[in-house]
Design goal:
Chain B: This is Signal transduction histidine kinase. The complex is a heterodimer. By secondary structure, chain A is α/β, with parallel strands linked by helices. Chain A has 11 helices and 6 strands. Among the domains of chain B are: 162 residues, no CATH class; 190 residues, Heat Shock Protein 90 (2-Layer Sandwich), CATH 3.30.565. The N and C termini of chain B lie far apart (84 Å). Classes of the chains: A alpha/beta, B alpha+beta. Chains A and B meet through helix 4, helix 6, helix 8 and helix 9 of A and helix 12, strand 1, strand 2 and helix 16 of B.
Chain lengths: 256, 530
């Protein structure tokens, strides 16, 4: 993994920098693991939000709080965002979910194929399931609400820049709900994508209970890296599964 | 006009007409115009017949082939057909009108052609600006219209196509229908400008006031008169049968001619209904925001020197607004206690405590309001409340209150999950924590309010905490509607649970079922995933 691990700015809700390469193989259930890309520091960030006031506030706060990230641009509309992101090629895009002309999902739709290296972190005041699920399925690697503290936001940005997923407790709850086994539900068509492993469920439950990755790791006797692997795997399933609940939430927002 | 050349369909775009110095537009009218041509085997009818099939490069239209012909919206005398055709062909309007008038004399062909074009050629975009008709043009146009109608009648009478007795009534019928139809067109325009009125009458009269009313009535009167004349004339016994046929034909004709009108009517009604719904929604949103958000903002300004109070107000308002926006009844229903159906997602479950999710949300909201902290709640699954679950929610509420009072943090996490056999809830903070063994005997909050409640309902409670490590209260209540046995899984998957930090709570000595919560938890997950 990265030598200069970014997760050293520790605080509630973050992992620490103790994960070692050995950690990735510590857990037998670890599957579908990913390699975090060594990232350049500072992480370049592009802000997309139709509220200029929020952009200004977030920009000032993010830059004052940490030198790990650098704001390289901002946009207030879908069109501006597409143009700006294409030009600036940031590592991470902080994407507002609700905007005129289609919102964050539209930006994702237009840019995902074109710029596969750009990572999108959705940021919203909404906690509605269809918003959260829809933007995740459109390709965002994480979802945080705007009430998140700046420190946590920085950590979330750094984490998605490294290829990990960021699940707020609320998102974890939605995903658990979407993958729940309900009596009378239609049969599973793709067991690999339509079901969570027991261990993934455990991780999600703890996330929903407000545990940080580090706390989950010690709770389940696995490494932080393995926790991240599980979360990324859940993210992948959330994005690709055709389970009715997930499709429904996405369809409600006229995605997919 | 005679140089308008008929060409085969192949010659469309290549076909040019060196006329008037205008950049050679060639007709290429759409299919309906072909109908015109089918009737127009007359050499004296160059424009209309010629309009049959041509390629077209209508200049300035900006559309590549096949360019369309449009009826003019502004600067027209009747329906904009002649103007549109003139634009299309690049000739003067006067000539086109004259041609129509002349054609009208030839068995009513001009009228037929005009009618067909009117019916099938679309009107141009409504924002296209046109100069209005000048007085002289208008005189000419109306003169030619009158001439055309006159020629139609005379020609019909002379040629015997319309026998003398039927000619006049039929002409009157036609004029009446034309007036009604034109009114529909005008009504439409007016509605675009002014927005909707309600009802069928609104569509017909379109807010056009007295003149529109008069025109519609005149049209109707024309039709009725025509029919009446036919009937009166046909009162002779021998002619009665013919008269009936004539009347039926008239009626069918009118119905056919007014088809576009009825289509418009239906569409307008739909538009209008949508517009009304939008307006009502807007008003409702405005009223709601005024009653809630604006009032809260005013309060916040007043209390701006009390940070805690401001936080409390803001959280309360946020929660209320969320419930309104995303609650089971959506933002359209301010009545939060309406018969909320069992919602199937945590995002939709923020009001009316009929289900677990709603009850949890309400409890969290109350504590937030009281203690000015933020309670982050996540509920997975949902179920109707019963006595046991009410106890669970009350216990959870007590646990949140404890955290708010003693933990010294401003955020508490609450997680509840409906599992096949039981409902579990976790209340967690990252605050001070405490030493469970060091709790004075006289403190009853945990033992009575939480553990006691749970046990009376058949559930269980665990506490894990240590000084400086935060606190987590874990509650579990078996579901009354489930036949499952929550204890059966305690052994086989107990190893998953990290018992390390588990300690008994206040006044609790080695709660025996301390692992069963998580054990059941894991079992359920395994069962579900296998």
């Amino acid at each position: 993994m990265t030598t200069d691990d970014p997760r050293t700015t520790d605080g509630p809700g973050t992992t620490d920098g103790t994960d070692s390469p050995a950690g990735t193989i510590a857990d037998a259930e670890s599957s579908g693991g990913h390699e975090a890309q060594p990232s350049d520091r500072p992480v370049t960030v592009f802000l997309v939000d139709d509220h200029a006031l929020f952009r200004a506030g977030a920009k000032a706060e993010l830059q004052s709080i940490s030198d790990e990230i650098r704001i390289v641009g901002e946009a207030g509309s879908v069109g501006e965002a597409v143009a700006g992101i294409t030009r600036m090629r940031p590592q991470v895009v902080l994407l507002d979910v609700h905007m005129p002309d289609g919102g964050g999902a539209e930006v994702l739709r237009r840019l995902r194929g074109e710029l596969p290296d750009v990572v999108f972190l959705a940021l919203s005041v909404s906690d509605a399931a269809e918003d959260v699920i829809a933007v995740i399925r459109a390709g965002a690697r994480g979802y945080v609400t705007k009430t998140i503290s700046s420190t946590e936001l920085v950590q979330a940005i750094v984490r998605v820049a490294d290829g990990d997923a960021v699940f707020s407790p609320r998102l974890a709850g939605f995903v658990l709900d979407a993958f729940a086994e309900r009596p009378g539900a239609e049969p599973i068509s793709d067991p690999e994508l339509d079901q969570l492993t027991p261990r993934e469920r455990d991780v999600l439950r703890l996330l929903a209970r407000g545990y940080a990755y580090k706390e989950i790791a010690s709770e389940l006797f696995i490494s932080v890296k393995t926790v991240e692997t599980h979360v990324s795997s859940v993210l992948r399933k959330t994005q690709l599964s055709n389970r009715y609940e997930l499709s429904r939430w996405a369809t409600d927002r006229r995605l997919v | 006009m005679d140089d308008v050349q008929e060409q085969g369909a192949e010659g469309r775009s290549a076909d040019t007409r060196p006329r008037d110095g205008v950049a050679a537009p060639d007709a290429g009218i759409r299919a309906p115009a072909d109908g015109t041509q089918a009737h127009g085997g007359l050499p004296a009818a160059p424009v209309t017949t010629g309009a049959g099939r041509f390629g077209d490069g209508e200049p300035g239209d900006g559309q590549p082939a096949p360019p369309k012909m449009y009826r003019r919206r502004g600067g027209r005398a009747l329906a904009g057909v002649a103007c549109g055709l003139a634009d299309h062909l690049g000739v003067k309007v006067l000539w086109v009108r004259a041609a129509f008038a002349v054609l009208a004399g030839l068995g009513g062909l001009g009228v037929l052609a005009y009618g067909l074009l009117w019916a099938f050629v679309p009107q141009e975009q409504r924002d296209t600006s046109r100069a209005e008709l000048s007085g002289r043009q208008r005189q000419q146009a109306y003169g030619l219209i009158a001439l055309g109608v006159g020629l139609t009648v005379i020609g019909g009478v002379l040629s015997g196509v319309l026998t003398g007795w039927a000619g006049l009534p039929v002409a009157v019928v036609l004029v009446g229908v034309a007036v009604v139809w034109r009114e529909a067109d005008e009504t439409q325009r007016r509605r675009w400008r002014k927005g909707a009125k309600s009802g069928v009458a609104g569509v017909v009269f379109g807010g056009g006031g007295v003149s529109a009313t008069i025109r519609v009535l005149a049209g109707v009167a024309g039709v009725v008169t025509g029919i009446g004349l036919i009937v009166l004339r046909g009162s002779g016994l021998a002619q009665l049968q013919f008269a009936v046929v004539a009347v039926l034909a008239t009626l069918i004709g009118v119905a056919l001619l007014t088809v576009p009108f009825w289509l418009r009517l239906v569409r307008d009604l739909g538009d209008e209904r949508r517009a009304r719904i939008r307006t009502e929604e807007r008003a409702e949103i405005a009223a709601h925001l005024h009653d809630s958000v604006l009032q809260t903002l005013a309060l916040i300004q007043k209390r701006s020197d009390h940070p805690r109070e401001v936080t409390r107000l803001a959280r309360g308002q946020e929660r209320q607004l969320r419930a309104w926006l995303y609650g089971p009844n959506g933002y359209g229903t301010p009545n939060r206690d309406a018969s909320a159906p069992g919602s199937d997602g945590p995002g939709e479950a923020e009001s009316a405590p009929a289900t677990l999710a709603q009850a949890v949300a309400e409890a969290c909201g109350q504590v937030e309001d009281t203690f000015a902290i933020s309670v982050q709640q996540v509920v997975v699954g949902d179920v109707e409340l019963d006595d046991g679950l009410v106890a669970l929610v009350q216990a959870a509420r007590e646990a949140i209150v404890n955290a708010a009072k003693h933990a010294g943090v401003d955020e508490v996490s609450v997680y509840a999950e409906v599992e096949p056999t039981a409902v579990t809830a976790f209340v967690r903070d990252r605050g001070a924590g405490f030493d469970p063994d060091g709790v004075p005997e006289d403190r009853h909050g945990l033992s009575d309010s939480i553990r006691g409640r749970m046990e009376r309902g058949g559930g269980s409670c665990r506490v894990r905490t240590a000084p400086g490590e935060g606190t987590e209260i874990q509650l579990e209540m078996p579901r009354s509607d489930s036949t499952g046995n929550k204890d059966s899984g305690a052994k086989d998957s107990g190893g998953r649970d990290t018992g390390g930090k588990d300690t008994g709570g206040k006044g609790d000595d080695g709660e025996s079922d301390s692992a069963s919560g998580r054990a059941t938890h894991d079992r359920a997950a395994q069962g579900a995933a296998s």
